Amino acid sequence: MFVIISFLVFARGSYLLGAGIPMIETKLDSSIIVVGEKTYLTVWVENFTLIDWPTTPKANPLALKRESQRRYQINGRIREGFRYLVSAFEPGIYEIPPFELQTDSGVIRSKGHTLRVSPVDNLQTHGIKINGEVTPYLTGIFLEKTNPYLGETQDVEAKLYLSQAAPHLFRLSDGNVINLKKDGLAAWRFTTTAEPTGHLDYDGHQFAVYTYPSSISALQEGPLILGPGSTNAALLRRQMVRGGFATRSFNTKIDFPSVSLNVRPLPEGAPSGFGGAVGTFSIQVRPLSLELELGESLTVETRITGSGNIDQFPGPQLVDINNDWKQFETMAKPSGGERRSSSGTAEFSHVLRPLKKVQTLPPYRFIYFDPLLEKYEKRESLPFPIMITGEAPSSKSLGKALEFLPPGERPLKALGKPSLVTKWAWQIIPALITCSILGIGFRNKLKARQIALTPLRDFENKLQEVTSASNDRVTFFREAARFATEHDATEGFEEVFEVRDEICFRQNPKPEPLKKGEMKQVLRLLRTLAPLFLFCMCISSLIRTSQGVDLPPEVAKAEILASMETGPVREHLHNLAICEKQLGNYGEASLWAHRYQLHGGNSTKLMTGIPGYHARSAEGTELLSKLPKWIYFQILLFGVWSLLISILTAWNIFGNKRKPLLVTFFVFTGCGLGVGITGMKLYPEDVSFEPLSELS
């Protein structure tokens, strides 16, 4: 029998534990409406079964009308929602009383709400033009106060009223963010959801209401303006089509008006410790431990709850009159998201360390300005009893004397960033070496030029001998043929040799004048034997023979495959990779490039641009941070200088000095470029740990 009773008691307790405590909550979709607007008030009841709607409180002159009911069952718990429509017929500030439920444990109540009602004239009318027809929509921005104090945070709502009348019935799909002009104001983003917060009957039209809630605080005194602004909203339009209705989506610009406010300065006479908090607040303090050793740290968590400029003031201060505690900086905990309401909680963490044994933790004090009372207020927590054990370490307990160094006469050296002279002065040395090598190279080039011009001068002198015989045709052609024979010229000079044989090897040749233009033609032909002209002809022939193959990739691929059947070489693999890459066959291109690499080729350029192949990014290492980053940059410049000097040495220095210079500077080049590039690429990101700043 006892076992059965125990089982029933346990089952009943488990049921009550699973069912939970009855709760009632209310949610007002919009706290600022216009005359004639109806907004939604939802009452949520948990762990309590209602046969009918809860009793509606008296809220005259407000009108509360039942709208719909919802019922959910989650993990055995019952959650019911009752939605009301709240409206008013006169502007003003009204209070919605809390809802009450009678339970077995007593009466439970929800929180009340404040509803502000503005004149409908504060709305601004706009239009959306569709197929030549203009459909109206309304917008407005509403503030709790138009004359707030400096730093006071207040709730603000931007509202959009979309037409629900035929032929165009609009619904909001995505309201996006309103871009409002807010000079001198700090504001969170204005966003909304696709669910309307109520509806309005105005001027023969019915409008669905969409609310953009946010909060603002003034950063400067005097007259300020919030707005105007706009957003690019996505709307759904219901229209009649053949056989029924259809919904179409489109984007349109929604304009919002501006609203003015006059910011008042805070009154003078702020008490010591005031950190700029404006609103109505309460304070809660919780030390994480009430027992600690002398010399250990204690963390105290504080919480400021209320309505005002949350997240814009420092935390409360410890009232340590006797300086018994060493205090560190108070750290604010992140709020975890945007704060779209002026009400909320700010949490702080404060680290302390006792300097001696004390019996209590002093209270925390928080000073703020209350805009409702229009005066400065002070909130102070109660002291906490605390137990501190242990003793402070002394020099005798260390077991041996402290080995201090005797003070010397050498002053401390001021440490700072190295000057530009320290960083860049060393580059004078490689610059002088470079100038010296350039001077030697210029001198050698000048000598080489003089030597190179010697054959050209000899050529011109011999050609001048031919020109001097221009008075006699026989002598001229004899000298021209001899000049061509000395320069081993036969091709192209057949006519010169024929004329020479005709007039010079006949019996008793008589002098005769040159024919008109004959001298210029022969001299032009002889000048083609000049050394510089022959060099240019050779280079041009090489250029003409080094042209690329201009074939379509399909034809080139077929020719390469055909040539590989007779004698495949490594270059065929490279060329096939290029063809496949040009044709867009990246898999085949990577395969041929990989084969080319296996046979000793460099496939880096071939792999560039092929999807799926990426260079591996280097990872930083803390070991490199032992030296400043600018030193690696200077080492890199040293490698560049060494490379430049090596190239200039190879071009301009000859003889026994060339080899040791090249070896030396090539070693400097490799070391400088290797260390410099490695340091610049793999240098770790700047990471700094800022210690807590001591307050006492």
Overview of the structural elements:
With about 700 residues, this protein is α+β, with helices and mostly antiparallel strands. It has 6 domains: about 15-115, Immunoglobulin-like; about 125-265, Immunoglobulin-like (Sandwich); about 280-390, Immunoglobulins (Immunoglobulin-like); about 455-530, no CATH class; about 555-605, no CATH class; about 620-680. It has 13 helices and 33 strands. Strands 1, 3, 4, 5, 10, 11, 12, 15, 16 and 17 form a 10-stranded antiparallel sheet that branches. Strands 22, 24, 26, 27 and 28 form a 5-stranded antiparallel sheet that branches. Strands 13, 14, 19 and 20 form a 4-stranded antiparallel sheet that branches. The longest helix has about 40 residues, at about 430-470. The chain is elongated and about 150 Å long. The two termini are about 70 Å apart. The model is unreliable at about 1-20, about 395-405, about 540-550, about 615-620 and about 685-695 (pLDDT under 50).
